[in-house]
Specification:
Blueprint: H1 2-22, H2 24-37, H3 53-65, E1 75-76, E2 81-83, E3 86-88, E4 93-94, H4 98-102, H5 146-163, E5 164-167, E6 181-182, E7 188-189, E8 196-199
Antiparallel strand pairs: 1-4, 2-3, 5-8, 6-7
Helix pairs in contact: 1-3, 1-5
The structure holds protoporphyrin IX containing FE (HEM).
Length: 204
């Protein structure tokens, strides 16, 4: 439970920050939205998230682009079954490559570009009903931490962007930020993100 709940959320948050630093226009839009919605309250509440559509789109785009569990949890076929013309025999172990679904141009326009805007005009959600976006899996074994994870990633990201501006260290240009991925049970950045916070407002 601890491994399933911590590594996945922290890795998703790190990817979200990396993508925003790599895409300064998206970062500016997300921060401007927070300045407008949360204003000078200097405190963030869970209820603010529902008023931050761009932030929600950034979180969804991070889930779509960097699936924390790229192959979900292995399944076993209960019976012989045909899937898309392939015969899967009873008892075969099946891995669902949701990472590849997230990069499939047949499913997504510009799949390898970080574009939160794609979610502003779509109802697609991560709750296991839209098969092109299942970062939490689906069916009976869907991640039980889904609601908690969506809220914590959204709140942590909002806190980082509302209270701080962010720079890359040592004059690294945003477009040069290394975005290499390393696969395992969970998917990580190959090199941890180094970013410099610049205090923007005080926490009350
Ligand atoms: C960004 C955060 C997270 C992501 C992307 C994520 C993703 C996943 C995925 C893909 C699965 C497998 C589902 C399947 O194969 O259909 C899973 C299972 C699981 N997750 Fe999460 N998870 C996250 C956060 C959490 C949190 C916060 C908790 C608990 C507090 C949690 C607890 C679990 C547990 C217990 C399972 C195993 C469920 C089972 O096998 O029946 N996860 N998660």
């Amino acid at each position: 439970m601890f491994a399933a709940g911590t590594d996945t959320s922290s890795s998703t948050l790190e990817w979200a920050m990396a993508e925003l630093l790599n895409n300064p226009k998206s970062l500016a839009i997300a921060q401007a939205e927070m300045d407008c919605v949360i204003g000078q309250n200097d405190i963030i509440q869970e209820s603010d998230i529902s008023h931050l559509p761009y932030l929600q789109a950034v979180v969804k785009e991070t889930f779509q682009f960097h699936r924390a569990a790229p192959f979900l949890v292995p399944r076993k076929a209960e019976a012989d079954v045909e899937v898309l013309g392939f015969m899967v025999s009873k008892d075969t172990q099946v891995l669902v490559n949701v990472w590849a679904i997230g990069r499939d141009p047949a499913m997504w326009e510009n799949p390898i570009r970080f574009e939160p805007e794609r979610f502003l005009s779509k109802e697609t959600d991560v709750k296991g009903r839209d098969y092109e976006l299942t970062p939490f899996g689906g069916g009976r074994r869907i991640c039980p931490g889904l609601p908690l994870a969506v809220v914590t990633v959204s709140l942590m990201l909002t806190s980082l962007l509302y209270f701080f501006d962010w720079k890359l260290p040592n004059g690294v240009a945003s477009e040069d930020l290394d975005m290499d991925e390393t696969f395992g049970i969970t998917l990580h950045r190959t090199n941890p993100l180094h970013a410099v916070p610049v205090k923007k407002r005080a926490y009350k």
